[in-house]
Amino acid sequence: MARKTTPARKSARKAKGAPAAFTRDEEFAALRTMLLVRRFEEKAGQLYGMGKVGGFCHLYIGQEAVVTGMFMARDPEDDVVTSYRCHGHTLVSGADPKAVMAELTGREAGVSYGKGGSMHMFNPSGHFWGGHGIVGAQVPIGTGLAFANRYRGNGKAALVFFGEGAANQGQVYESFNMAAIWKLPVVYIIENNRYAMGTAVTRSAARPEELFMRGAAFGIPGEQVDGMDVRAVKAAGERALAHVRAGKGPYVLEMQTYRYRGHSMSDPAKYRSREEVQKMRQEHDPIEQVKTRLLEAGQATPEELKAVDAEVRKVVSEAAEFATSTPEPPAEALWTDIYADENTARGEG
Ligand SMILES: Cc1ncc(C[n+]2csc(CCOP(=O)(O)OP(=O)(O)O)c2C)c(N)n1
């Protein structure tokens, strides 16, 4: 029987051809941001290996184009929420790399005063609302942010990032339903990095090749995007945001991406081959793609590219230096920031 074409199915689409070109400035901005995330994460991994980071630590290496392109597309006032794999989102939202690294090392100067660690980072001034350890829990929270924006009529949207593993959670579909009924201004961004811990998407998801269709039953349009190409991400992000801001309700973006490192620092990564990882790094790396384009178009010299990297490495090593020398919270800090009230609530709201 022929499949009935619903409006959602008609508006859902697979990744298309080459996305619109970036200007030289945009290429450099994307390069700098992605390098900041990459070098930061490499350093975080080193500090973890040296025993300087307690608890969990999930690195974002390989996925940099997703957060970078989406933040290029968003309005700085739009709200953002994500999972525990949040260092990149915190940095790109404008948090000081020193404060992000100090959160990893559990210091008082950290973004969450050293009490949240790797999975619980926030940056209210950048409208970044965490950093959540429970798989999928940020989806209803982000939907609530969109509801608040709708209610206040402030024209702001919410960007809700979650993994393809989280995309199988029930609360995701409760959120989709409410967002569709109320036409909330929310973009759901599925970061399909192909593995949820050690489980491949092909084993965990029904119709793993079309996660962008996950909102179809609710009439939510979806798009599959090359999440390794920052230009494709930005262009899709702009389309999605224009849709939600026009009052047409939510939008799903499936970002096809890849994480190079293990799920967390304690993952031996036995569930995939070295060759698979190598192939992604060599053929699809988001940072190398920008560098190659700049060089081939004669828009940058190798020296200029090296200078950006050196600049970023300096920022990151200063952050590490700070994060390993600034003090830990005093013992009394155990009694603060437990409940939000006028005596204990800190930061901007
Ligand atoms: C409700 C819940 N179940 C299980 C876990 C353990 N857990 C942590 S991360 C993870 C995998 C999630 O994968 P995915 O959503 O694809 O995101 P990724 O880690 O790939 O970014 C699991 C099962 C958890 N934190 N919360």
Structural features, described:
- Helix 2 (24-49) packs parallel to helix 12 (302-325) and helix 3 (64-73) crosses helix 9.
- The termini are far apart.
- The chain is built from twelve helices and seven strands.
- It has one domain (23-320): Thiamin diphosphate (ThDP)-binding fold, Pyr/PP domains (Rossmann fold).
- Helix content is 42%, strand content 9%.
- The protein is an alpha/beta fold.
- The radius of gyration is 20 Å and the shape is globular.
- The protein has a five-stranded parallel beta sheet, with helices on both faces.
- Residues 83, 85, 133-135, 163-166, 193, 195-197, 263 line the site of thiamine diphosphate.
- The site of thiamine diphosphate has 14 residues, from strand 4.
Keyphrases for this structure?
349 residues, alpha/beta, Rossmann fold, five-stranded parallel sheet, two-stranded antiparallel ribbon, 12 helices, binds thiamine diphosphate
The secondary-structure class comes to alpha/beta
Mean pLDDT across the residues is 94
Number of domains: 1
The helix-strand sequence is HHHEHHHEHEEEHEHEHHH
Fourth CATH level, the homologous superfamily? Thiamin diphosphate (ThDP)-binding fold, Pyr/PP domains
Enumerate the distinct ligands: thiamine diphosphate
Task: Give the biggest beta sheet.
Answer: 5 strands, parallel
CATH class: Alpha Beta
Number of helices: 12
What Rg, in angstroms, do the CA atoms define?
A: 20 Å
Termini Cα gap: 54 Å
By DSSP, the count of extended strands is 7
Q: In terms of per-residue confidence, which ranges show pLDDT below 50 for 5 or more consecutive residues? A: none
Q: What's the CATH architecture name?
A: 3-Layer(aba) Sandwich
Helicity, in percent? 40-55%
Strand content: 5-15%
Strand sequence of the main sheet, in spatial order? Answer: 1-2-3-7-6
